[in-house]
Design goal:
It is built from six helices and 14 strands. It is an alpha+beta fold. The protein has a six-stranded mixed beta sheet with strand order 2-1-6-5-4-3. Helix 1 packs antiparallel against helix 2 and helix 2 packs antiparallel against helix 3.
């Protein structure tokens, strides 16, 4: 009993140290995103992506391709984007994270933006401790009434309130995440053999309560209840998802691929989080290629 009493304070200190590290790395990730955005506004998209992309980073133009190779092969692309992070999260071990928020496009530097949308960027921590972009995708939509200038992270993240529950990290309370690859195989989330109802097989079953859904031409849709209400009204609910890549580490994962439907086709990216003993989709984006 004495040994257990002595061990408890040590365990709490270790957990607080882990949470503090996660919080600091999340702040660093967002700061890196901010530097990325400033570089794009000042020097143009080409220069910014070449600086902040990982060597194997993926962009969609319109199909998935190596970003550095694309921008090196297209040096004459001079486009000026600005963007603001409204939400960010990071894995429990600080290895990968993601950011999302509003973007604005101007044909020339300093001009009033004439196009708007939402970006999703996935980041990976490098051996030198810096974050680099490993995937970037986005959609276009109408000009929003307000642009969120402050960023937030999920309330369920231990980094959001480390003092409230030092054992809220799922890897510290005996909830060992199922390997993401094993989960996908077991659940058959991406059916490659036939058209499936993404609404019934994926959305209803795997969306998190605080999911963010991004669709071309629409402002971000937030929350499972609201999202399902909107998506159920879509003309096309049957898609043919073809998985290209899935990667998960500890409690955060992502997957991307292509989809076909009776009305459109394009790319999808889903970000998953391990919560309450199961994998849940926290962000879902479809980016059509036939606009």
């Amino acid at each position: 009993m004495i040994m257990k009493i002595l061990l408890l304070p040590s365990l709490i200190l270790i957990l607080f140290a882990q949470v503090f590290s996660q919080s600091k790395d999340l702040e660093k990730l967002v700061e890196t995103e901010s530097l990325f955005a400033k570089s794009a506004a000042l020097n143009g998209q080409n220069s910014a992506f070449l600086e902040f992309l990982a060597n194997d980073g993926i962009i969609f133009r319109p199909e998935a391709k190596n970003g550095k190779e694309f921008f090196r092969d297209n040096p004459n692309i001079i486009e000026f984007y600005s963007w603001q992070t409204s939400f960010a999260d990071i894995s429990a071990n600080n290895a990968i994270g993601y950011t999302t928020g509003d973007w604005q496009f101007s044909t020339k530097k300093g001009e009033i933006p004439n196009a708007f949308g939402q970006f999703v960027t996935i980041w990976q921590k490098q051996q030198n401790g810096e974050f680099k972009v490993i995937l970037d995708i986005g959609i276009s939509h109408q000009k929003p009434k307000n642009v969120e200038a402050k960023w937030t992270f999920p309330a369920s993240s231990p980094a959001s309130n480390p003092a409230s529950n030092p054992t809220s990290n799922p890897t510290s309370n005996n909830e060992t995440p199922t390997k993401f690859s094993a989960f996908l195989t077991t659940e058959s989330v991406y059916d490659r053999s036939q058209f499936v109802s993404m609404f019934e097989n994926i959305y209803k079953k795997h969306f998190a309560d605080d999911v963010c859904v991004l669709r071309e031409g629409k402002l971000p849709i937030n929350g499972k209840k609201n999202t399902l209400s909107v998506l159920k009204k879509e003309v096309s609910l049957k898609h043919f998802p073809k998985l290209k890549l899935a990667f998960g580490i500890q409690d955060l994962a992502y997957a991307f691929g292509t989809y076909d439907s009776p009305t459109d086709k394009g790319n999808f990216v889903e970000i998953w989080k391990f919560r309450k003993g199961k994998w849940q989709i926290v962000l879902d984006i479809l980016s059509p290629t036939n606009n």
